Amino acid sequence: MVKLTKIYTRTGDDGTTGLVTGQRVSKTDLRVEAYGTVDEANAAIGVAVVAAEASGANEILGVLRDIQQDLFDLGADLATPVQPGESSAAALRIVPGQTLRIEKAIDRFNEGLAPLSSFILPGGTPLAAALHVARTVVRRAERIAVDLMRTRGAEVAPEGIKYLNRLSDLLFVLSRVANNRGESDVLWVPGANRAKA
Predict the structure, then answer these.
(1) CA 138 to CA 38: how far, in whole Å?
(2) Which of 1.20.272.10, 3.50.50.60, 3.40.50.300, 1.20.1200.10 would CATH assign to domain 26-81+89-110+121-186?
(3) Where exactly are the structural domains of the chain?
(4) For residue range 21-54, what is the model confidence (pLDDT) as tens digits?
(5) Which pLDDT belongs to residue 186?
(6) Residue-wise pLDDT tens digits, 57-94
(7) Residue 159 · residue 99 · CB < 8 Å
(8) Strand 16-18 and strand 24-26: pairing?
């Protein structure tokens, strides 16, 4: 259990921060950027939670609250470099079952949505707009995590990247559900404003 008794420590005043292992790294380290962006994604999903509560979208609300728990797990995962020969119980890691739960939610919520004939502009209902913001932050977190894996290799657990990839897809599907099951989706019209130039 995490226990926070003091909010400021002054240990980061030199521009470093501590990983779960105790190792000090620069606050601009790619690993810190990865788990920091996951934290940002979690905050964006928090805004979507508020919108879901306001609109009575209880089924979406429950899924989002589960995701927020997962994203704290993922932050811990990314903040803990994988050690050679690490046992499965050595660190908190995203597990395949968490990714599978996201896939099942995608399938469940996507069922019955009309196929798309164009890309969707972010917007529609307030909940859908919040979900689109969260989706784009998750995509950025995924890009940074992929870059971290590219540069640090075996020090990064791959399941977290799979989770982020599926999560952005789920947030897209949920945005369509929040847009009256796609009826209020705002479609992109390629070149719509070219004649106005």
Answers:
(1) 7
(2) 1.20.1200.10
(3) 26-81+89-110+121-186
(4) 667 765 668 989 999 999 999 999 999 999 999 9
(5) 87
(6) 999 999 999 999 999 999 999 999 888 888 878 889 99
(7) yes
(8) antiparallel
Over the chain, what HEC string results? CCCCCCCCCCCCCCCEEECCCCCEEECCCHHHHHHHHHHHHHHHHHHHHHHHHHHCCHHHHHHHHHHHHHHHHHHHHHCCCCCCCCCCCCCCCCCHHHHHHHHHHHHHHHCCCCCCCCCEECCCCHHHHHHHHHHHHHHHHHHHHHHHHHHHHHHCCCHHHHHHHHHHHHHHHHHHHHCCCCCCCEECCCCCCHHHC
Contact 153, 144 (CB under 8 A): no
Map tokens 């980061």 to a residue.
12
Q: The tokens 């803990």 sit on which residue?
A: 80
Structure tokens at 50: 């508020």
The rounded distance, in Å, linking the Cα atoms of 120 and 135 is 13
CA–CA distance from 50 to each of 123, 128, 137, 188 (Å)?
16, 12, 17, 27
* Other residues' Cβ atoms within 10 Å of the Cβ of residue 106: 18
Predicted model pTM? 0.89
